[in-house]
Amino acid sequence: MDINFRQVSIVGLGLIGGSWGLALKKYGLAVRRTGFGRASTVARALAVDAVDEGTDDLGRAVRDADLIILAAPVGAILDCIPRLKDVASSRALVTDVGSTKRMICERARESFVDGPLFLGGHPLAGKERAGVENADATLFINARYVLTPLEGGHIEDPRTKAFISLVTAIGARPHIMDPARHDRALAFLSHLPQLLSSALASVIAEESLEARLPVELAASGFRDVTRLAESPYSVWRDICLTNIENIQQALEALVEKLEFMKRHLSDRELEREFQQASKLREKLREAA
User: Fold this and answer.
1) Which residue spans within 27-179 are E strands per DSSP?
2) Residues with Cβ < 8 Å from 58, sequence gap 6 or more?
3) Structural domains for the chain
4) Phi, psi dihedral angles at 207 (to 5 degrees)
């Protein structure tokens, strides 16, 4: 790398922020890791060695940072970006891990006119359970890591190139794309599966209460499909709020598909749906 991110500030010490901190330590990629969050969260992050030091003062946390990773929920990232304008070094690279990108990149474009360089980011990695206590240094291995530069020329900035190298060093696979295209793709590939899983689990919860449905009969298939239902609403609230139109389109497409299958439960059209779904699964296995 032409640039070494010696001082790294992680704003938000949950699963992703904690995993970033642990990965930096595991691979020796930072001299000092500073965390920002509530005192109780900082204490938990220190206990698992996700950071070297922590504070609840944002200015103090980012003042000397070469790299600032915004690892909070999307709403908190949107609130934090304007605050960084006056406290972050102009030589720093600021990136985020938000699951939606368009609104975050728009806010950064407004805020960092003459300040640090912003590079949108989204690691396609995670777990159902949040919190720094579930952080893992190997979380990003083999995961796609989407990067959304604000301008085409930013990809040639030494700080961007250094971060791409950093992402590769923690085992992830960088993928450059446009923020709006990212949000539409993730509405179908991530946000829709989450809502489907939560909806199915909610339906069964209601049925079990009203009709004494014996949920102990649920086997591995049901558990697999509803695995995402363990994800906290506190994370998904902001995702839904910042990607409403794309998610609505995805839900409408799913509703249409379910209505189609409902109408064809007794004919060969249903078989074609199964065959099409099976072919997609085969492609996913090959891609993996």
Assistant:
1) 32-36, 53-55, 67-70, 93-96, 117-123, 144-149, 173-176
2) 11, 36, 80, 83, 84, 87
3) 7-177 (3.40.50.720), 182-287 (1.10.3660.10)
4) -65, -40
Q: Would you state the pLDDT for residue 213?
A: 85
A 10 A CB-CB count for 235 gives 17
SS (H, E, C) 141-188: CCCEEEEEECCHHHHHCHHHHHHHHHHHHCCCEEEECCHHHHHHHHHH
Task: Please state, in angstroms and as integers, the Cα–Cα distance from residue 139 to each residue in 27, 135, 142, 167, following that order.
Answer: 13, 8, 9, 12
Taking the C-alpha atoms of residue 185 and residue 167, their distance in angstroms, rounded to an integer, is 21
Q: What does pTM read for this prediction?
A: 0.91
The answer on pLDDT for 1 being more than 60 is no
C-beta of residue 42 within 8 angstroms of C-beta of residue 17: no
85-139 tens-digit pLDDT: 989 999 999 999 999 999 999 999 999 988 899 999 999 998 878 899 999 999 9
What is the Cα–Cα distance from 174 to 147, expressed in whole angstroms? 7
Buried b (16+ CB within 10 A) or exposed e, 45-56: bbeeebbbebbe
**What Rg, from alpha-carbon coordinates, does the chain have?**
21
Q: 3-state DSSP call for residue 274? A: helix
